[in-house]
Amino acid sequence: MTPFFTLVRRDVALAFSAGSGALLGVMFFLIVIVALPLGIGPDLNLLARLGPAFLWIGVLLSTLLALDRLFQADHDDGALDLLTLSGLPLELLVLAKCLAHWLTAVVPLIVAAPLMGLFLNVSPTALGATILTVLVGSPALTMIGAIGAALTVTVRRGSLLLAILIVPLTLPVLIFGIGAVNGAVVDGLPFRTPLLLLLAASLASVAIAPFAAAAALRAARG
Amino acid sequence: MKDSRLSLVGEGLACRRGGRTVFSDLGFAVGAGELMAVTGPNGAGKSTLLRLIAGLLAPIAGRLDYQGPAGGDDLAGALHYVGHQDAVKSGFSVRQDLAFWTGYWNGRGDIDAALDAVGLGGLGAIPTAALSAGQRRRLALARTIAVRRPVWLLDEPTAALDAAGEAMLGTLLDDHLERGGMAIAATHQTLPSKPAKTLALSVGAA
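ok -> structure tokens follow
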């Protein structure tokens, strides 16, 4: 397992090194969330009702930002070839890079979420539920995104293609995530069921996506 | 070196890329302490052959038999591939870059000694983005001595290197072969170390 964690450490270090822009995702998240109240107007009740959904959509879009470089950076400079010469299976390599992506691109969003909630007048209960559901559901976003990142690894300007491929597949995650938040806030709506479905989506994608992404990377070697 | 069982034998290898058969029925044998030069015009399949040996491409026919110095047949874990691209990360310092690969490949080599050997001693702290093409190639070569592996696959190793760099590469190669390693180098130029064998590829040899 040593190469696995060495790779995770390296990707985390690279993400926070100068010029890589790991915090761009958080900045983008901030811009989206700040723009919304300005666009919608000062109706606090409306903002509070829409807030969790906006937070979720913000997380989804911000997560996509860093995904297109997930494998492409290593593919372009030849590092991906060398990374496979360690005995670390390509599937575990994918998993290591996804873990690093989640730590550097998603966790900062979760940390920033309480501040974003303030902008949208989200109640503490709804905010707590949003953070919990993002925590549970975001691994699915990263893992499904990794499949798209692997498929578009050789495509110049593949980020838009990546979004087109990936966003439809992540919509169930969004639906269950917001469904669980509504369940926590509104009486009579289920909370546990959508949360468990969200968890299932994350677990299934962690189990399946590495194989799919690794197959796509093998095909890209040409 | 005498009792080393290191050998790499290819038989009847064929590879297709982009719908074209690059080469077919290709055979070679390299043993301990041997350097094989792969020569041929552009498009003859030199890089393809190296990538095939590295396991980065799959042959459509033929077989590759590898035996490690002490037996064993894990070729991917026993080789260094120095390709066209140097896989040097901008955002890291020279030292960090080499330290990552050394740790990743479970190497125990001394990082500073490896940097000294390729003429990058004293540059460990500078960011890799500030390196010239030749220096990046030297850093890529430093990995081969920070992590000792018996099989070296070098694709145009002298590209971007100056005269002193070529001499340095010759020393590295001679030392590697002296230790009982093997090396396969694709090149257009004269290698700084005398090859024991030459595999000449030609376009459309199929």
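Chain B has one domain: 7-200.
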